[in-house]
Amino acid sequence: MPLELDVQFDIVIYALLAGLILGMLFDLYRMIRGKSGHKLIIIIQDILFWIFSAIAIFTFLLYTNYAFLGPYVYLCMGVSLFIYLKLFSNFIFKVENGIVTGTKVTIRRGYKNASYPFRLFFNKINNKR
Fold first, then answer.
1. How far is 77 from 27, CA to CA, in rounded Å?
2. φ and ψ at residue 95, rounded to 5 degrees
3. What is the rounded CA–CA span in Å between residue 38 and residue 35?
4. Of 59, 56, 55, 77, whose CA–CA distance to 11 is shortest?
5. pLDDT of residue 1
6. Helix locations, the chain, DSSP H
7. Close Cβ partners of 103 (under 8 Å, ≥ 6 residues apart)
8. Greatest alpha-carbon span in the chain
9. Is 76 within 8 Å of 15 (Cβ atoms)?
10. Domains in the chain: how many in total?
């Protein structure tokens, strides 16, 4: 039984969104992994990333279009991933990097501010200035 047109349209839209999500996950992984590291560790990280990505994308497609995985779903995901990597990846990578850097700075400052009274107290006990 052929699918109705609105169902097919939803499947294509969600497949395109899945490709964009995969691209964003790849940018996040690229930022976390960095450029250096031992080759064996990078291979293990790559395998774990693709397993996690496959689970995340399958779960997304399961909830949005009942995990209908026809050939055009893979084609739409590939096309949207290619477009994302060519057009949006550099900008999104910079935004993600800024968010992560800002989060690190906020956590570091929060820790220093929260630990300052304790450091003062223990320094006075030990007669340190």
1. 16
2. -65, -45
3. 10
4. 77
5. 59
6. 5-33, 39-65, 71-83, 89-125
7. none
8. 83
9. yes
10. 1
User: Residue 34 corresponds to which amino acid?
Assistant: G
Question: Nearest to residue 30, comparing CAs of 45, 40, 44, 19?
Answer: 45
d(CA 4, CA 85): 32
Return d(Cα 62, Cα 121) in angstroms, integer: 55
- Beta-carbon contacts of 27 under 8 Å, excluding residues fewer than 6 positions away, are 89, 92, 93, 96
Domain of 54, in residue numbers: 5-125
* Length in residues, the chain: 129
Q: pLDDT digit of tens for each residue in the chain (129 aa)?
A: 587 888 889 999 999 999 999 999 999 898 888 777 788 988 999 999 999 999 999 999 999 888 788 898 999 999 999 999 999 999 998 998 899 899 999 999 999 999 999 988 888 888 765
